[in-house]
Amino acid sequence: MLKNLIVKSNQTEEIEQTVLSIQMGNQDIENYFINKYIPFIKKVTAGVCKRYINPSRDDEFSIAMIAFSEAIHHYSSNKGSSFLSFANLVIRRRVIDYIRMEQRRRTPLSFDYKDEEKENMENLAEVAASFQTYHTKLEKECRQEEILHFQERLQSFGIKLTEVANQCPKHYDARINMIEISRIIMKHDDILHTLLVKKRLPVNQLMAHISMSRKTIERNRKYIIAMVIVFNEDYYYLKDYLKEWF
Questions:
Q1: Are 131 and 103 in contact (CB under 8 A)?
Q2: What SS3 state is found at 213?
């Protein structure tokens, strides 16, 4: 068990060093790295499309390759999550966006049609409804995956999702205040670094930038950390769900 953990840790460190080297301009390593992880890219894409993916025929695979490259250039270890976990989210989102766009393009509906075309239009409407159901299912799966990823990030801080829900301020103004504190943390690299590396909220550092009482900060510590994670990660659906608070 310990040996497996050590191997996994070494692999994660090696991947992050490779990604950093690519971000510094090593294009040869980028091509090698992308080719090495084609099986991973295919697996994630197939999971979204619910079918076998043929790299030479399926446009979704091309979109996934572009998304993987995007993930390489936008990843930061400061986010706290592993590169492959981050790449998984980016690939799934880009492929879902592509599928949604393609189905809208292929099934345009018009209300200006002749009687003899009614049957064809009804068939198109059924197809469009089917695609909508499919898209809703994909988005639900991606949202669930983001929540699972969010839970894993919280666990690294010793926090449960239920604890965040229980600690969420009941009043709107109080929530806004806690979110503003999260924004302040995001603006100060030293505070953010301490939080992500040491897995604790550096209250003393934070108090130099806010006028709120220490007791209030301590009482809402888990909620503040959770909001920092949401801001810091590439959570499309969670951010959309919480956007009225942002």
A1: yes
A2: coil
